[in-house]
Design goal:
The protein contains four helices and 15 strands. The chain is α+β, with helices and mostly antiparallel strands.
Length: 192
């Protein structure tokens, strides 16, 4: 990342969004840049497969995205901010259009679901740090997918405005009606 202008202060969301593209995965956590390694083949394959299955089963008014920046809106605009890039996310198409028309990135309040796929270096962040941030940001559904055999999906739902209930780990076939009807054979996400 030669030539990248590393900041000398904590960044706001606006300052983060003004940084040049690097080709790396960078998130903003309380004003600090956090660099994530590029996804492994297993991670990338599972993300693609899950995204395809989500897209095929989503109601027409919903849309799935992969790895786009989300303003968690956990701090006032002039304060050090939080921007995460979930592996997958589901948003209402109307909210997505409103966000685009306003010229802003999606906010946590626009999301119905955030999904993180566990990598060797992201386990703690996915199961704890991001879980807490996403709950505090008001994202109503959070799934953590672990593709190491046997593949599991842990689903988190809110107990109040800023806290998720203890997650429920699923193996085999994951079936849900909330936030939309969806069925997934988790074995399809394992290394093939």
């Amino acid at each position: 990342m030669s030539g990248f202008p590393w900041p000398d202060h904590l960044l706001t969301v606006e300052e983060f969004l003004a940084l040049p593209e690097t080709g790396n995965r960078i998130e903003l956590v309380e004003g600090t840049l956090v660099l994530s390694p590029r996804p492994t083949r297993d991670h990338s394959d599972a993300c693609l497969e899950l995204g395809i299955q989500l897209k095929a089963q989503l109601p027409a008014h919903l849309k799935v995205y992969q790895e786009i920046d989300i303003d968690l809106s956990l701090a006032p605009a002039a304060k050090p901010g939080f921007v995460r890039s979930p592996d997958l996310l589901v948003v209402d198409r109307d909210r997505d259009k409103q966000s685009k028309a306003a010229g802003r990135i999606l906010r946590a309040s626009d999301l119905l679901l955030a999904v993180e796929i566990v990598s060797p270096g992201s386990r703690r962040a996915d199961y704890r740090t991001k879980r807490d941030e996403y709950a505090e940001a008001g994202i109503p559904n959070y799934w953590v997918v672990d593709v190491w055999e046997p593949a599991t999906l842990t689903a988190y739902h809110p107990v109040d405005d800023t806290t998720y209930a203890e997650g429920v780990e699923h193996k085999g076939v994951f079936k849900t009606e909330f936030p939309f009807p969806f069925e997934l054979d988790l074995a399809t996400l394992e290394d093939r």
